[in-house]
Design brief:
Elements (H helix, E strand, L loop, with lengths): L2 E6 L3 H12 L3 E6 L2 H10 L4 E5 L7 H11 L5 E5 L8 H7 L4 E4 L4 H20 L2
Parallel strand pairs: 1-2, 1-3, 3-4, 4-5
Helix pairs in contact: 2-3, 3-4
């Protein structure tokens, strides 16, 4: 069964690349280029995982993660960033709020796919039981 992933990044080249790469691993990818567009999509649709950039102009990754937790607390979220230094402490705030994973760009696609599969499987186990 094909898993549905929502990919969010304000850089179109990144969402395009992730859509191509993840589709090759049998994921159905929906791309959004703003946090607000992603949130609107999630209010009306189900996905198996959210993969979002942290630094976006309209809504940062922590804000999106927080709102998703209020809306669909069962949804696994992976945040990604191109910055090693986190001036706004978004990674720290997200981790304190329960985020499990932050990946750093550029990332190894095989490792990302493994992590995505792991988080989706954990979520399904939690929802449906082992």
């Amino acid at each position: 069964m094909e898993m549905k992933i929502l990919v969010v990044d304000d850089v179109l080249d990144i969402t395009d690349l992730l859509e191509i790469e993840l589709s090759e691993h049998n994921f159905h990818v929906i791309s959004k280029n703003s946090g607000y567009d992603a949130l609107r999509y999630l209010m009306e649709n189900e996905v198996d995982l959210l993969l979002s950039d942290i630094a976006m102009p309209d809504m940062n990754g922590f804000e999106l993660f927080s709102r998703v937790q209020d809306l669909k607390d069962y949804l696994p979220v992976i945040l990604m960033t191109g910055f090693g230094y986190d001036p706004n402490h978004v990674v720290v705030k997200s981790k304190l709020a329960g985020l499990k994973d932050v990946v750093y760009k550029p990332f190894n696609m095989d490792k990302l796919v493994t992590l995505i599969n792991k988080r989706i499987a954990e979520s399904k186990d939690k929802i449906y039981g082992s």
